[in-house]
From TrEMBL, chain A:
The chain crosses the membrane at residues 16-40, 65-94, 115-133, 139-157, 189-210, 257-279. SUPFAM superfamilies: MetI-like. PANTHER family: PHOSPHATE TRANSPORT SYSTEM PERMEASE PROTEIN PSTA-RELATED (PTHR43470:SF3). The keyword Lipoprotein does not apply. This is Phosphate transport system permease protein PstA. It comes from Shewanella piezotolerans (strain WP3 / JCM 13877). It comes from the Bacteria. PROSITE patterns: ABC_TM1. GO terms for cellular component: plasma membrane. Belongs to the binding-protein-dependent transport system permease family. CysTW subfamily. Gene3D superfamilies: MetI-like. One of its GO terms (molecular function) is phosphate transmembrane transporter activity. GO terms for biological process: phosphate ion transmembrane transport.
From TrEMBL, chain B:
It comes from Shewanella piezotolerans (strain WP3 / JCM 13877). Residues 48-257 form the ABC transmembrane type-1 domain. The lineage of its organism: Bacteria, Pseudomonadati, Pseudomonadota, Gammaproteobacteria, Alteromonadales. PROSITE patterns: ABC_TM1. GO terms for molecular function: phosphate transmembrane transporter activity. Keywords: Cell inner membrane, Cell membrane, Membrane, Phosphate transport, Transmembrane, Transmembrane helix, Transport. This is Phosphate transport system permease protein.
Amino acid sequence: MLQDKRIFNRERQDKLLFAAIWSAAAITILFLLWVVWHILSNGLAHVSWEFITGAYTRIGEASGIWAMIVSTVYMVGLSLAIAAPIGIMTAIYLTEYAAPGSKVVKTIRFCTESLAGIPSIVYGLFGMTFFVTTLGLGFSILSGSLTLAMLILPVIIRTTEEALLAVPMSYREGGYALGSSKIYTIYRLILPSALPGIVTSIILSTGRVIGESAPVFLTAGMVTQIPESVLDSGRTLTVHLYKLTQELFTQHEWDQAYATATVLIVLVLLLNMTTKLIATHMNKH
Amino acid sequence: MVGVISVATIGWFVFQEGLPAFKEAGIVNLVLGREWLPPALYGIFPMIVSTLISTAGAVVIGVPIAILTAVFLAELAPKWLADIVRPAVELLAGIPSVVYGFFGLVIIVPAIETLFNIPAGNTILAGIIVLAIMILPTVITISETSLRALPPVYKEGALALGASHIYSIFKVLVPAARSGIFTGVALGIARAIGETMAIIMVMGNAPAMPGSILEPARTLTANIAMEMSYATGIHSSALYSTGIVLLVFIVLLNASLLYLNRTRSY
């Protein structure tokens, strides 16, 4: 009797937990669909060629986001130009040159892990005092890019390291057996086979740069003009969306905010699809 | 090579720039002070409380959903379904925080207004809900990875002893993967503590001690982001100290994670 009751309870418990798991997964998906659907359904209609390539004035009907797109592209390009070489070279050093477990390796590991854990607003705080004020770069694309370069450095180092470690040892041995130097082997054999992984790290960092906002407005400012040089201030898309939400009064302003959010979500979708394509491409070879 | 120096100096500078500011303002007055009235009073205690409440709330709501979703992906979902859900979770991770903030502003804030019949929905509760959504992907991805990394003998053993699938998941697999799950939760907490823009957009930003989760509040990150662009002198020092307190939280979080994983590893 007692035994039966326990078995019965256990079955019920199993069913309850089973239901809990399914509903949790359903909640996750529904939230995603809700967020994406709400933004796209309200925003897509207002994304037009004029909106994307037009100029923006705060007062009046001109609401284009071309200047913000240019600023964002500058920001991505410059941050990557600064962080990618440093990050990739650090990763090469860590995997190919440094003795595993040595003091230097441990120090770099510790530094990158700490860097990855620091909230992005603290980067903004640091960037604003150091790049903007101390170095006198002012609110500029350059200050913003330097700050974001620091932010994405851990991502690039980690992902590149993993890509390099995945290259089979026999490649290196083969290279040396043929009498090539270490540098030549790395440059000609190891880097090309780790390339998809390195590209993935670059795309991940691109996503981070596009998505960040707090450290950006503290270092790059929010001027809505097309930046003429890297020393000009510029407003990225995320900062633009933030500014728009602070003045949602007319229907026109709502439409602009939804349309900007839509552009951002489409960008993220495109980046994710590119990463997927590279991953499947990698598995084929 | 180049990286060694740059990474080291970056780490060094963040702390170097921050510490003097902390001394200047006076630790006790600053951390326990209840009034934030620049340029007279710089107490960040209300911000500390708001940060803790909103983070804890997000964890209470988000973590169970995330761990169960991870179990679903690792154990229950048929392959085709997991192949749809997983990229969806990745997409959730990639959406910029301002977009979540915007969503919170147009959907969650008005919903709270109608639901609780209050004039302004910009409350801690709105922040909690937005943060809960934002930490989902972090916790899901890392928990799923650690569940999948378990050797298959664990499950086979449990099933061979006559345990049901669900029973073996919760009594064998989840406990065995707990160090990975803890790591996921800790990273989720770090994301919640560090989140800035979404919080500014939905939480109302009043620098006062919140009486309930239906009141507006300002977190440590919001405090920095909102005032840094015009602060000078002692005011900006106080904002630096806010940043140091934020870093102390993150360090404590990492230390407790190390401790947990160490004590449980045998």
